[in-house]
Amino acid sequence: MTVEEMRAALSTARSAARAGAQVITDRGTEIGAIRIKGSHTDLVTETDIAAGVAVASAIASDNPRARFVIEEDEVYELAGVQQGELDDPAVWVIDPLDGTTSFVHGFPCFSVAVALLVAGEPVAGAVYNVAAEELFSAATGLGAFRGEERIHCTDVEALDTSLLITGFPYDRGELLDHQLCVLTRFLRAPVHGIRRDGSAAVDCCHVACGRADGFWEFGLKPWDMAAGIVILREAGAAVTGIDGTPWTPHSTGLIAAGPALHPLMADLILGK
Predict the structure, then answer these.
(1) CA dist 31 to 47, 56, 197, Å?
(2) What CATH number should be reported for the domain whose range is 159-269?
(3) In what order do the strands lie in the sheet with 82-83?
(4) Which of 30, 32, 103, 200 would you label with 247, given CA atoms 20 to 30 Å apart?
């Protein structure tokens, strides 16, 4: 993509994230009906759907031929947009409300995440932290931003001086058991502390802007990660899949940190 195309994609991602955030803000505590998806801990509300329609419609207004991968399937028909695949030459990947459980309970950490993937790589993205009214965004070669301010990850070089973020999987079986083992390793490393707030997209942005030094999580979906990954990379962070291999849209989790800290985190997660 040319620089002009990157700038256009970044502008579209920002506008779309704002559109979804406006729907969530306008609804306030009017959550609407709540239903359970694959697990009793995996929730979706009417607000998720409405925000998804707003995001997809905003992108389609700029790019009528755009293809989409959206967390909530109902959005395709309601927004009148075309469903795509993660391996398409270009596809917009959307999580219209990342952190639905927090949203339902009124816990102030939920977001809208929008990313453009080109040949499987996130090249532009935006994350709107709704409760904090913060817009994070980035595009390849253009840098990462909080609002209009450039952001960078930290240069922490040791686990014992790091603040980390993680999350817990919807799968409360073997995957949770594995996460609890990894969590114990970090706590005993030791680290300064570990935080958990329920929106992987926001967690990526916290690392990108230096509020935390590293983030790992198992059991994520591409719409949880794609926008955050381009923001992290443009902020100077190292990002891999949860197994330490290069991230792809089919990765099931991620490790993100500054270049010096990332390999230390990866070794501990992988039990080396």
Answers:
(1) 6, 20, 19
(2) 3.40.190.80
(3) 82-83, 67-70, 90-98, 111-118, 121-129, 134-139, 143-146, 149-150
(4) 103
What's the confidence (pLDDT) of residue 72? 85
- Each domain of the chain, given as residue ranges in start order, spans 3-150, 159-269
The predicted-structure confidence for 170-225, as pLDDT tens digits, reads as follows: 777 888 899 999 999 999 999 999 999 999 999 999 999 999 999 999 999 999 99
Query: Does domain 3-150 bear CATH number 3.30.540.10?
Result: yes
Place of tokens 């040949």: 119
Residues 73-126 pLDDT 10s = 899 999 999 999 999 999 999 999 999 889 888 899 999 999 999 999 999 999
State the helix-helix crossing angle for 222-234 and 200-208, rounded to 10 degrees.
Answer: 10
Place of tokens 């381009």: 230
